[in-house]
Specification:
This protein is an alpha+beta fold. Helix content is 38%, strand content 19%. It has eight helices and ten strands. Helix 3 packs across helix 4 and helix 5 packs antiparallel against helix 6.
Length: 249
């Protein structure tokens, strides 16, 4: 099999584990565009001491018009802010990050509070668009033999579930076990789809629910009156089953 690897040129290999994350590889694009019209943005901050203390040991999910934001502390006491928004919102502020933040802060006083006194650690945010949320690779006769997709190349779960890394690790483990046991990439992708189908259906439903402006107030009300709903939703969108299975012909 030949893969076009950009600056590295074309590379021939019998087996490839494709782990390019959210970005497509020429000649091996994923089908479907469940995130058409949406853009994902990521920025790292050093929060003010009071806000850093307030966000420690928790992940904050903030619902916004047509999208949502996630804020949490990561290594070295940095905070990461991830946004998923309609591309139209970015165009409305001429693609200017600071203008977008001002607009979001006007919409969400909570987000404004968290970012007051914060220092951005990147010159500009990382960005990605056109993510096929809900995608699970279905093997076909057109697939190159020996191409094992892992992580977002195999399945793209809604960002708000926070399970993308676990899914990437679990699918990588499953692909490696499959290959070591002499299984084909078709066997692997079919088994992966079988194990992920229920989780992805639930995650996609929650994702769409939280994107819909008309339903967002209901989501907040349900979570306020019944906090256990958040735990149940988290449990239903976890890929923990992947780490406990091996290859079976």
């Amino acid at each position: 099999m030949w893969l076009d690897c950009g600056a590295l040129g074309r590379i021939a290999a019998d087996t490839v584990f494709l782990a390019t994350g959210k970005h497509e590889l020429h000649g091996a694009a994923r089908s479907g565009r469940g995130g058409k019209g949406l853009v994902g943005l990521k920025m790292y901050y050093l929060l003010a001491p009071s806000q850093r203390a307030a966000t420690r040991c928790q992940v904050e999910l903030i619902l916004l018009a047509g999208g949502y934001a996630g804020l949490q502390l990561v290594e070295a006491d940095r905070a990461v802010l991830c946004l998923l928004l309609p591309a139209a919102r970015l165009r409305a502020v001429d693609g200017r990050w600071h203008n977008l933040l001002d607009s979001l802060a006007d919409e969400s006083p909570h987000l404004r509070q968290r970012l007051t006194g914060a220092r951005a650690l990147l010159d500009r945010p990382l960005a990605v668009a056109g993510l096929p949320y809900g995608y699970i690779h279905a093997p076909t006769g057109c697939d190159p033999p020996g191409l094992f997709r892992v992580g977002d190349q195999a399945a793209v779960i809604g960002s708000l579930t926070g399970d993308g890394v676990a899914l990437a690790l679990g699918s990588g483990l499953l692909a490696a076990r499959n290959w070591l046991a002499g299984g084909s990439c078709v066997d692997y992708h079919r088994l992966l789809a079988l194990r992920l189908s229920r989780q992805m259906r639930v995650a996609s439903a929650i994702h769409r629910f939280c994107l819909a402006k008309a339903w967002q107030p209901h989501a907040v009300t349900v979570c306020s009156l019944w906090p256990q709903a958040v735990r149940l939703a988290a449990a239903a969108t976890r890929a923990n089953r992947l780490t406990h299975i091996g290859y079976a012909a």
